[in-house]
Amino acid sequence: MPAYAFIDFKSQGQTIDHVLVDIGKTTCFGLSPFNAYVALSRSRGRETIRLLRDFDDNLFIRHPSEDLCIEDERIDGLVRQTCSRYTKGKYNPKASV
Q1: Other C-beta atoms within 10 Å of 11: how many?
Q2: Dihedral, 32, 34, 35, 37 alpha carbons, nearest 10
Q3: d(CA 2, CA 32)
Q4: pLDDT (tens digit per residue) in 68-93
Q5: How far apart are CA 76 and CA 70, in angstroms?
Q6: How do beta strands 49-51 and 19-21 pair?
């Protein structure tokens, strides 16, 4: 069976019949949840994915980016503020006429 290797950046947008994925810890660079997602989502289904070695479980439970975490919190605050204003009738179209 022919095989080849490439990095996750090069694999984006491709679907591959059988995938052997290495998301294990490296000494050269960090691995983010985004990298892992791209690598694992290249196959046609989880039955065709094989992991080369063990990986750090925290890869999938930590937030991928501190900046995204801050932005998520900001948006959550806006949602709470909007809900509060809505329940007080501040967004009622009939009230502003």
Answers
A1: 17
A2: 130
A3: 29
A4: 889 999 999 999 999 999 888 877 66
A5: 10
A6: parallel
Contact in structure between 16 and 43 (CB atoms under 8 Å)? yes
Q: Band of the pLDDT at 4, cuts 50, 70, 90?
A: low
Given this model, what pLDDT does residue 40 score?
A: 85
Tokens 């950046």, residue located: 9
SS3 46: helix
75, 51 contact by CB (below 8 A): no
Q: What is the DSSP secondary-structure string of 51-89? A: ESS---GGGGTS-S-HHHHHHHHHHHHHHHHHHHHHHTT
| Structure tokens, 66 | 């501190």
Measure CA of the first residue to CA of the last residue in the chain; give whole Å.
Answer: 71
